[in-house]
Amino acid sequence: MAKDKKEMISDLIGYLEYLKESGISFLPSLKKRKVQALEEIWRELIDCQRCKLHRSRSRIVFGEGNEDAKLMLIGEGPGYDEDLQGRPFVGKAGQLLTRILQSVQIERKEVYITNIVKCRPPGNRTPEPEEIKSCFPFLLKQIQLIQPRVICALGTVSAQTLLQTDTKITSLRGKSFDFSGIKVFPTYHPAFLLRNPDKKREVWEDIQKVAKALREGGE
Length: 219
Ligand code: SF4
Hints:
Oligomer: single chain
Radius of gyration: 18 Å
Shape: globular
Largest sheet: 6 strands, mixed
Number of helices: 9
Strand content: 5-15%
Bound molecules: iron/sulfur cluster
């Protein structure tokens, strides 16, 4: 009888452990290949002019973090500080995100952080549908490579884009959704939280659910 998926995964893990014990480990080369593949996607975006956001950007903010992350955090787009530094979530909202993660014992170095659009919209306006459409395929490639177990969608644009819905973030947050087998937990964007500190409790509840989903998955 054909083996089920669980058995096949368990056999594969056993085989990899056997190879490791025998001193044959190709896991590092798999990791290296993943890093290289991410670099290739990044190279596709160098000098990208696929949408008009390229006109006002200083730098493309590709994303950063652990390429084997179990948790991926996806925001809307780079802000002022991110555009200058070329790194995601480095301003005040980023510092708040770091504290939110630490509140459930998750360090930034463990996760992968990126955005729906990789260039800063002028004046931090919301990215337009055409801009999202142009940039989204690159995010999909990042997700396919990293293969996180859980995605935390930060804010309306991220949640609505990933879930292909017009439903408001107020109705989406607090629940989990499926995205090609990955659990998606929408919550408020940290920048919104800075302006609306009364929403802290809801974000706290959401991040607890994210941490629980990671633990349940064998984290
Ligand atoms: S937002 Fe994305 S698609 Fe638009 S120019 Fe920047 S990298 Fe290219």
